[in-house]
Design goal:
Rossmann fold, alpha/beta, DNA-binding, 6-stranded mixed beta sheet, homodimer, about 45% helix, about 325 residues, 434 Repressor (Amino-terminal Domain), 12 helices
DNA sequence: CTGAAAGCGCTTACAG
DNA sequence: CTGAAAGCGCTTACAG
């Protein structure tokens, strides 16, 4: 009965207090003042349950990621959460642990909580799961799901730009023999990244040597094994680009274990720019994934949709190369 | 009006449906069946806002941490969230970014959402902020806040055990000259860890050489600088224990830059067992902070309190040493 | 063991 | 520009 107290104190009806609370136009300045004062004096805070029940909006957004423990996501979560907080929106978040089936139950939980909107920032998405949300009339935004681009709003990241920059950096250092550590090709993002790398290579008229491509599981361990495989090849590449930083870190360890010095004997470039990329030795040159921008766009899009504003399709985001110390001219080539 | 549909379908009143929903005893088996079937057939999901509004309970818990970007927290968040999900409880979480003032507004936001309980898992806590929650009648649990131990329930971690294990490990390798990289002493957890280290040293009849203690900011950069300082000392310690893994990682980089080989020339032990500890080279021996257990205890305690069950004070959790490859006998001592 | 009904605290047509 | 009142979808004494 709290809005009633405020109304009494301000000598208005609860309707008027509600109008002030929600910033509706058409309240006389004097009344406005009075109500505001009453709100302040009583330290009044609207009950979100009552609001949600009545208005159908909860000011609650859902955020679904693949894995909190993957250092890729904290920044994304952080950025999304900060934006929401600034608008008085709370975020509940869950993760699928890379299991597309869990997406289904994550979304169900969010629907049960009647969130206003859901950001599905996982690397893999099953369309079935999204349909629940669609049926419940809850707007959804995805990250980099090209095959669903027509059906659901999507924040796209264009990998090609990043790989092109890496490649040009390596070429300018004098590298010609470039290997690649790919991720499992049934994973969308891994396939997309490999395609982008190969496209970059082709655009420089270079061809891809199959024996200079190794596959890893996208984790440190996989990078280590892939690097071991690559180091066993003869001839060897003089530079290696990895699909993600976690595997680049593993590759670094494998190189160290084989007494191959990075960058003196071998150059190495990662992808993502995880915090760890700057912490290993040597600090890793890597392609920065614009995940804060992804979060910002996702939030913007959802919050516009919820308010009924029109949303325009944005141009894809461009990742860029961050040069640190894991790249150098190939052995035998003088630094110019 | 949805519970009404279910009630109609089952030929009972909404009160009975509600009883079934909430698992209240005293519903005839036959009625129970009918209601359950009606719920299943209609795919009925109770509206959490209506529930919360009426019952005062929201099945929403708050979780406050210092910093999502600090790799210490994701596992804690993950564990807390999983436990909550298993009980149909949702979690909203925020972080203070180490600013005790932000704790105030974090807690306010949670109160506005009328969460049922709040876990304040930050390294620093200001009592003022907690009082809001107390006034609102919302149970709170803290992590390792010894000075507030009497007033608020607290999940304690006993640092001493971990440091004693490190020390004994180093002694058994033959080290006698042991340095320490401390954190800023105005930070509770940093002071607690240093005290614990010194206590462990004393319990072995060893004394503390002031010139073998350096201070860092708890981040990688701080560890790097502290290590540089320590490496300049003559005589030098043969082993160094760092207050946390992030600084240990920095120390490792500084050692590398000075061509001091770890562990051959110098042994190094961290604290926390962050994922990164296993990723650097050499993989870091470190004291594992039982953060999943902390989350589990915090959740247990809150959920019991909310249900009105009595809570017993648990014995402090014990961290343990994880031996990897950053420790070896001091130079000149043969491995036995 | 079950039902009728009040009421949780808001928002929102509707009326003036 | 403002108010009276219905109603969002539940839960919970109270009564039987």
């Amino acid at each position: 009965m709290d809005i009633i107290q405020v109304a009494k104190r301000a000598n208005v009806s609860t309707a008027t207090v509600s109008r002030v609370l929600n910033g509706f136009p058409g309240v006389r300045e004097k009344t406005l003042q009075r109500v505001r004062r009453a709100i302040a004096e009583t330290n009044y805070v609207p009950n979100p349950n009552a609001r949600g029940l009545r208005a159908g909006r909860t000011r609650l957004f859902g955020l679904i990621v693949s894995d909190v423990n993957n250092p890729f996501f904290p920044e994304l979560i952080d950025a999304f959460e900060a934006l929401a907080a600034a608008q008085g929106i709370e975020v509940i978040f869950t993760h699928t642990n890379y299991d597309p089936k869990r997406l289904q139950s994550c979304i169900r939980r969010m629907i049960e909580r009647s969130v206003d909107a859901i950001a599905v920032m996982t690397s893999e998405v099953e369309e079935d799961a999204l349909q629940q949300a669609a049926r419940a009339g809850i707007p959804v935004v995805l990250m980099n799901q090209r095959k669903l681009a027509g059906k659901y709003p999507n924040v796209l990241v264009e990998y090609t730009a990043g790989f092109r920059e890496s490649l040009e950096h390596l070429l300018s250092l004098g590298h010609r023999d470039i290997g690649f550590i790919e991720g499992p090709q049934w994973i969308n993002s891994a396939r997309g990244r490999k395609d982008a790398f190969i496209a970059a290579l082709k655009s420089h008229g270079m061809h891809v040597r199959d024996e200079w491509i190794a596959t890893g599981d996208l984790r440190v361990e996989g990078g280590r094994k892939a690097m071991d495989a690559l180091l066993a090849r003869r001839p060897r590449p003089t530079a290696i680009v990895a699909t993600n930083d976690l595997m680049a870190v593993g590759a670094l360890q494998a190189a160290y274990a084989s007494r191959v010095r990075v960058p003196r004997d071998l150059s190495l470039i990662g992808f993502d720019d995880l915090p760890i990329a700057a912490m290993v030795h040597p600090p890793l040159s890597t392609i920065r994934h614009p995940r804060r921008e992804v979060a910002a766009r996702a939030f913007e899009l959802l919050s516009k949709t919820v308010r009924g504003e029109p949303v325009a399709e944005d141009a894809p985001l461009q990742p860029h190369l961050v040069i640190r110390n894991s790249t150098a001219p190939p052995p035998g080539v003088k630094r110019r």
